[in-house]
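With this grant's support, we have settled on a layout for protein records. A representative record follows, to show the layout.
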Amino acid sequence: MDTKLTLKLNQSIIEKAKEYAKENKTSISSLVENYLSQITQEKKSDNNISPLVKSLSGIIDLPEEFDHKKGYADYLTNKY
């Protein structure tokens, strides 16, 4: 069941939201409803992490200044 909700917003935000909604072929009501739905959902990110990944998390202790991109580039250079 849909229920009407009245919001007070800055006029420039309303105009930008109307433009965004038009470009994305949706309504401001749908945008607000989707946003509120997302922020009120229970966080399920812990359920997506497998036990193996959890057990490996935090095993490697790298120095603060470690450049992971350079390390990977060095690895690839040595490999090929």
Summary: The mean pLDDT is 88.
